[in-house]
């Protein structure tokens, strides 16, 4: 899953945040997750 995420992310401009669908949820990973958690003032989980 993270391999596919990395492939998609590499095709996008660096400032783009990628939301990746996992089942019925959308998730962010790595730097995108950090940026989202800071912007929304929510706790980052792993």
Give the topology, please.
Elements: H1 2-10, E1 20-22, E2 25-27, H2 30-40
Antiparallel strand pairs: 1-2
The class by helix and strand makeup works out as alpha+beta
Count of discrete alpha- or pi-helical segments spanning 4 or more residues? 2
The largest sheet is: 2 strands, antiparallel
Low-confidence stretches: none
**Number of separate strands:** 2
The helix content is: 40-55%
Query: If strands are numbered along the chain, what order do they take across the biggest sheet?
Result: 1-2
What's the Cα radius of gyration? 11 Å
Structure write-up:
The protein is of the alpha+beta class. The protein is built from 2 helices and 2 strands, in the order H-E-E-H. Strands 1-2 form a two-stranded antiparallel ribbon. The protein has a domain at 1-25. The mean pLDDT is 93.
Quick summary:
This protein has 46 residues and is α+β, with helices and mostly antiparallel strands. It is 43% helix and 13% strand. It has a domain of 25 residues.
Which characteristics define this entry?
43% helix, 46 residues, alpha+beta, two-stranded antiparallel sheet, single chain, globular, 2 strands
């Amino acid at each position: 899953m993270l391999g596919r995420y990395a492939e998609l992310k590499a095709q996008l401009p660096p400032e783009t945040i990628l939301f990746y669908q996992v089942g019925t949820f959308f998730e962010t990973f790595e730097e995108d997750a950090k940026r989202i958690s800071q912007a929304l003032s929510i706790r980052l989980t792993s």
